[in-house]
Write a structure and sequence with these properties.
Blueprint lengths: L2 H10 L2 H53 L1 H5 L35 H19 L4 E7 L4 E11 L5 E10 L2
Antiparallel strand pairs: 1-2, 2-3
C-alpha cells in the first residue's frame, strides 16, 4: 500500500459520523420549527374559538332584547349591570323558573330584562373568562350597541384586546 492510499483512508474514516451529525442537526432544526408552527396554530385556533363564542353571546343578548319589546324600547337593557355579576346569587325574581315565587306570566318586562342580564353575564363568564360586556342604549336612534371584549395573546405573544360588537334595533 502506498502512502497516498494510507492517507486517503485515514481522512475518510470519520466522514460517515460527520454526515450523521449534519443529518441530526438538520432534523433538529426542522422539528423545532415545526413545534413553533404548531404553537402558532394552537393560539390561532384558541383565538378563533373565543371570537365564535363572543359572536354567539352578542347574538344571544340581541335575541333576548328583541323578545322583550317593552323593556327594550324603554332602554332598560342599557341600564343594567353586566360586569362583575355574582353568578352564585341569582336574581330574587326568576322569571324562567316556574318553581320560584314569581311565575313567568307575573313577571314585568323589567324583571325579565334583569334575569336576561344575569343569565347572559353568567354565560359569558363561563365561555370567555375575563370578558367585558357592554349594552348601551341610544335613545335618539332607538338602538342598542352590544359588545363583548376580552384580552387574548396574539401570534407574537403580546396581549391584545379583541371584541365582537353589533348595533341592533329592538
Amino acid at each position: 500500500m502506498s502512502i497516498k492510499e494510507a492517507i486517503g483512508t485515514r481522512f475518510q474514516e470519520g466522514s460517515t459520523l460527520i454526515e450523521i451529525l449534519v443529518a441530526v442537526l438538520i432534523l433538529s432544526v426542522t422539528l423545532i420549527a415545526q413545534a413553533g408552527v404548531q404553537v402558532l396554530g394552537v393560539r390561532a385556533n384558541a383565538n378563533a374559538h373565543l371570537r365564535s363564542e363572543a359572536a354567539i353571546l352578542v347574538n344571544d343578548i340581541s335575541e333576548r332584547i328583541r323578545a322583550n319589546v317593552p323593556a327594550a324600547l324603554a332602554g332598560t337593557y342599557g341600564t343594567l349591570t353586566y360586569n362583575g355579576v355574582n353568578c352564585a346569587v341569582p336574581p330574587a325574581d326568576q322569571c324562567s323558573d316556574n318553581s320560584s315565587a314569581v311565575a313567568s306570566a307575573a313577571c314585568t318586562a323589567t324583571q325579565v330584562a334583569q334575569e336576561d342580564a344575569f343569565l347572559w353575564s353568567c354565560n359569558a363568564q363561563t365561555v370567555i373568562p375575563g370578558n367585558t360586556l357592554s349594552v348601551v342604549w341610544d335613545n335618539a336612534n332607538s338602538t342598542y350597541a352590544l359588545q363583548v371584549a376580552w384580552t387574548t395573546i396574539d401570534l407574537t405573544g403580546n396581549p391584545q384586546t379583541q371584541n365582537v360588537s353589533a348595533v341592533i334595533h329592538p
